[in-house]
User: What shape does this take?
Amino acid sequence: MKKMKLVTIITESTLSSILPDEIIQLGASGYTLFEVSGSGKRGKREGDFSLSQNIQIEVICEEEVANKIVELCKSKYSKNFAMMIFITDADVVDLND
Amino acid sequence: MIENLLDPVILFFVVGLIAGILKTDLKLPEPIYEILSIYLLIAIGLKGGIQLSESQLEKIIFPILGTIFIGIIIPIIAYIILRRIGKFDRSNASAIAAHYGSVSAVTYAVVIAFLDKFNISYENYTTVLLVVLEIPAIAVGILIAKFRASKGPFSVSKLIKEILFGKSIYLLVTGLLIGYVLGPEKMNSVKILFSDLFKGLLAFFLLEMGLVTSYRLKDLKRVGLFLIAFGIIMPLISASIGTIVGWLVGLSVGGTTVLATLAASASYIAAPAAMRIAVPEANPTFYLTASLGITFPFNLIFGIPIYYWMASLIV
Assistant: This one.
């Protein structure tokens, strides 16, 4: 098992064309993206129209990269975009063992 | 006006609108909405291309220039009105202005259905004007946003590229080309799908548009009286400009009605996605509610007959 971080970002689907590329540039080796819906302090997102859709991006990465991702989201997006981020510990299974 | 309302396309829109207001569980799955919008864009492009193959192309230059003029002037006028009278800040004013410069392909489809229904002839190349208007208007909108408002870290060239290669322009242009190259005879094999079924599927699409519009109505209270008035008066101003330009470049009554409607229509698909990124500090509630909640239904129900009336007065 390798100790890694799981960064989960829930945000507006508009960012799906930008944010994943930036996450890779920060040093993450990959990400998972899915469309989600739900409710939060910036209102309910029912996923019924382009701008009201949400995405969830999950990234498994080193702690250092996780911090960079958080920093990017805080400085560039959190003010104008609905966004929620949390980080959890992840024990990543090494499938080559 | 009444005659315009008694049309399946308009009534399906109203049915969707009421379903949303009454909170029925009617909902079209997202993929259906997607496929219908792709279908409509292809069908509009093909129809335009076939018509184009039967028309003389040299007559098209002045209408194109007139349309580019409209695409540049409308967002500028809208921006000035929103800033001076509406007291909107620069970000919101530029984002809303971009929506009013850009066009709605669905509104275009409805005006064409309106003219066909009343057997009013129009120029064969109006679909080209639809494509032409979409490009400069949204580019000007983004430029106003860039120079007047946003300090956002997004590059203008990337955004414009995304719009040019976005699906609506791509499908309209390729549809035009296929229709133009193949002409009416070779297109006969797909006529059932793209021509005969068009109005029925447009009605189906408008059912969904009615639902989507109803979701915006709940925000009317939040946007204030000025923006509600703007959503009705701005298309009238744009349509007047469109009517005058249509008359100047020598379009027929039908063609002028189309140009006025294109000028009056506000984008609610391409523009919101572009503006959310170009001007992230602008509030989407303002531009979505104005273009989708007010201007779109206004144009559909009242606007198109008014623009036809304006065109028949002047041309």
User: Anything to note?
Assistant: The first helix of chain A runs from residue 19 to 25.
